[in-house]
Amino acid sequence: MYDQGGLDEMELVSKRVFLTLPDLVYEKLERWANYQGRPVANLAAYIVEKAMEEAEAEGKIPPPPKKEPPSEKG
Fold it and tell me: 16, 34, 35, 58: which has the fewest C-beta neighbours closer than 10 Å?
């Protein structure tokens, strides 16, 4: 769904983020998630992913650093 930014397969694991939301924001998010029949965390992850895609498309996120090829030992 999105560009993995050159990450190796071994680095592609989900990360957990803990955040605090104002009560009103959480209540609205919960209603939205319930309306869609999905968990609140799943909807929040989707919203963040879409915002990241938009920010990337607008050039607001720099590209990942280039990986240097492994050095040869000899």
Answer: 16
Residue 65 to residue 53: CA distance in whole angstroms:
18
Please provide the size of the chain in residues: 74
Is residue 43 within 8 Å of 36, Cβ to Cβ? yes
Report the chain's terminal Cα–Cα distance, integer Å.
41
CA distance 56 to 40: 24
Task: List, for residues 1-13, the tens digit of each pLDDT value.
Answer: 455 555 566 567 8
> Both tokens of residue 39?
């968990």
Half-sphere exposure of 26 (CA within 13 A, CB side): 6
